[in-house]
Automatic annotation (TrEMBL):
A Pfam cross-reference name: TetR_C_1
Residue span, HTH tetR-type domain: 3-63
PROSITE patterns xrefs: HTH_TETR_1 (PS01081), HTH_TETR_2 (PS50977)
Segments of the chain annotated as binding DNA: 26-45
Record bears the keyword Transcription regulation: yes
Protein origin, superkingdom: Bacteria
InterPro entries (UniProt xref): DNA-bd_HTH_TetR-type_CS, Homeodomain-like_sf, HTH-type_TetR-like_transc_reg, HTH_TetR, Repressor_TetR_C, Tet_transcr_reg_TetR, Tet_transcr_reg_TetR-rel_C_sf
Lineage: Bacteria, Bacillati, Actinomycetota, Actinomycetes, Kitasatosporales
GO biological process: negative regulation of DNA-templated transcription; response to antibiotic
Single GO molecular function: DNA-binding transcription factor activity
Protein name listed in UniProt: TetR/AcrR family transcriptional regulator C-terminal domain-containing protein
Keywords, comma-separated and alphabetical: DNA-binding, Repressor, Transcription, Transcription regulation
Protein's UniProt keywords contain Cell membrane: no
């Protein structure tokens, strides 16, 4: 029997994902790939759902290990870079967005808190920061879902002549800019005290 461990199982499962796509990934195929009996995989993952969760976590490694924001970073530039890093990571794996969708970033909670603290310390209201980060995350997953679905159709058919061809990267950048502009506007509005509430001058 081939000697395996949890990390090898996940790594081979991700390679299998790249080869056959998410719908075709099975513990039977994975066991055959590893040269082991299928029941032996249950030593590492009790269910296929547990395996997929571990795969999703491992697939996020490039984004999860990216440098965290420093106190003197511009929060707008960081927001853009962070979201772009997330998109690039999802695109690294076949069906990466589908694999990630619905997963819980249990091992990334400290990093998420650091990012939120950075935005708040930079002047972004906490609720707006939370909402914008969630919106950017879901927008990115949705964008990549569409992009990977288009890339995986492979039927050779041409779109109707009157239907514009979508440049996925340009569409993503345009949507991301709208999210950032909205967040920046809300932040600026909250930073300006309403008329009549300015602090009285001290003599």
């Amino acid at each position: 029997m081939t000697k395996v461990n949890r990390e090898i199982v996940v790594s081979e499962a991700l390679d299998l994902l790249d080869e056959v796509g998410l719908d075709a990934v099975s513990t039977r195929q994975l066991a055959k790939r590893l040269g082991v009996e299928q029941p032996s995989l249950y030593w590492y993952f009790r269910t296929k759902k547990d395996l997929l969760a571990a795969m999703a976590d491992a697939a996020m490694a490039p984004h999860a290990t990216a440098p965290l924001p420093a106190p003197d970073d511009d929060w707008r530039e960081w927001f853009l870079d962070n979201t772009r890093s997330f998109r690039r990571t999802l695109l690294m794996r076949r069906d990466g967005a589908r694999l990630h969708a619905g997963s819980t970033p249990v091992n990334d909670l400290d990093r998420i808190r650091h990012k939120m603290d950075f935005l708040v310390a930079s002047g972004v209201p906490q609720r707006e920061a939370q909402t914008a980060m969630l919106a950017a995350s879901r927008f990115t997953v949705g964008s990549v879902l569409e992009e990977q679905a288009d890339a995986g159709s492979g039927d050779g058919s041409e779109p109707p002549a009157d239907m514009p061809v979508i440049d996925h990267e340009s569409a993503f950048e345009a949507g991301l800019t709208l999210i950032l502009d909205g967040l920046a506007q809300r932040t600026a509005t909250r930073a300006v005290p309403p008329p009549g509430n300015a602090a009285a001058p001290r003599s």
